[in-house]
Amino acid sequence: MTIGSYRQFCPVAMAAEILCTRWTIVLLRELIAGSTRFNELRRGVPRMSPALLSQRLKELEAAGIVMRRSSASERGVLEYQLTAAGRELGPIVEAFGVWGQRRIESHLSLQHLDVQLLMWDMRRNLNTTPMPSRRSVLQFAYPELPATQRLWWLIVDPNESVDLCSIDPGFEVDLYVSVDLRTMTAIWMGLETVRAAVASQRMLLTGDRQLAAAIQSWLGLSPFAKERKLAS
Predict the structure, then answer these.
(1) Strands 175-179 and 136-141
(2) H or E element at residue 205
(3) For residues 22 and 25, what is the distance between their CA atoms, to the nearest angstrom?
(4) Where are the alpha helices (DSSP H) in the chain?
(5) What is the CA radius of gyration of the chain?
(6) Which candidate, 60, 66, 92, 134, has a CA 20 to 30 Å from the CA of 34?
(7) Mean pLDDT (the chain, rounded)
(8) Strand partners, 191
(9) Helix (H) or strand (E) holding 82
(10) What SS3 state is found at 99?
(11) In angstroms, rounded to a whole number, what is the distance separating the alpha carbons of residues 15 and 11?
(12) What span, in angstroms and rounded, lies between the C-alpha atoms of 203 and 197?
């Protein structure tokens, strides 16, 4: 890569030329988290244009960090897999997240709310262990958002996967969760608890009492939520 080159032989500068272009670290976060298909990656970086996503994937492929492969399960579908060099970046990307959770002030993080990204991350980290052995359908409502972004459904099958829908899937809902986006994001990031949100009536839970009682344990928080905040 010659565009934006630091023109230094230092390994830090050479690595930065590849890793520090706009969106690259965030894209690597998605790849490391397990997203492999173009549309999955788009859901994890919803504000990144498809053209730029395609460009960054090509750059990572040229750098030996990502490789394209045909899907083993679906004919004609391409998947993006991390190479050995790409997997080595896991601790580096994690360190970015740990530092950000510890050192970035909470009010700054909560200025950048994104319901699509939040729900995608919740789907990925949801803990099915304390949930019923049957299928559970959870509806999240964000009353202050436009109608097209207001309702989301998580369909949880402990034996298969967790699906995210932004269109009513037509199943009977087991638990309704009504909450504002800022509160839900704060809970996800470990900055607030479900109990405090329910007590202040910023979160309303309606439906299956067992699911409602255990929501803090199955919600599946950010992998960085356990990090203690050092900035106010």
Answers:
(1) parallel
(2) strand 203-207
(3) 8
(4) 11-19, 24-33, 38-44, 50-62, 84-87, 90-103, 106-109, 115-125, 147-150, 181-188, 194-199, 209-213, 215-218
(5) 19
(6) 134
(7) 92
(8) none
(9) strand 78-82
(10) helix
(11) 6
(12) 5
Sequence-distant (≥ 6) Cβ neighbours of residue 85 within 8 angstroms: 63, 64, 65
Q: What is the distance between the alpha carbons of residues 23 and 52, in angstroms, rounded to a whole number?
A: 9
SS (H, E, C) 148-194: HHHEEEEEECCCCCEEEECCCCCCCCCEEEEECHHHHHHHHCCCCCH
Which pTM was predicted? 0.85
The amino acid sitting at 90 is G
Single-letter code of the amino acid located at 213: A
